[in-house]
Amino acid sequence: MTEKKVKIATINDVKAFVSTVMMYEYDVDLISGRYAVDAKSIMGLFSLDLTNDLVLKVHSNDCGDLINDLAPFIV
Predict the structure, then answer these.
(1) What is the torsion angle, in degrees rounded to the nearest 10, for the CA atoms of residue 19, residue 52, residue 43 and residue 47?
(2) Which pLDDT tens digit goes with each residue over 25-45?
């Protein structure tokens, strides 16, 4: 499992983030406080408080390609 802090600031960021994550087969969650949602769900992301940093949790140890693609969002 790999964890990174991410910042998703705008509606366009949400669309780009979900589009990127959807290209991979890994299970990916975003966590904000006590809430966790599927990172492949646009509706799930909009239910989170996007004003704060989120925790990206990738359920794989071999996810370097995904992390590289998400570099613009990593804090």
Answers:
(1) 170
(2) 989 999 999 999 999 999 999
H/E element, 44: helix 42-46
Residue 57: how many other CB atoms lie within 10 Å: 16
User: Do 46 and 38 form a contact (C-beta atoms < 8 A)?
Assistant: no
Residue 54's contacts (CB-CB under 8 Å, 6 or more residues apart) are 5, 6, 7, 8, 30, 31, 32, 48
Cβ pair 75, 52 in contact under 8 A: no
Residue 58: count other Cβ atoms within 10 Å of its Cβ.
21
pLDDT band at residue 61 under the 50/70/90 scheme: confident
Q: Considering Cα of 22, then 63, then 13, then 49, what sign does the dihedral take?
A: positive
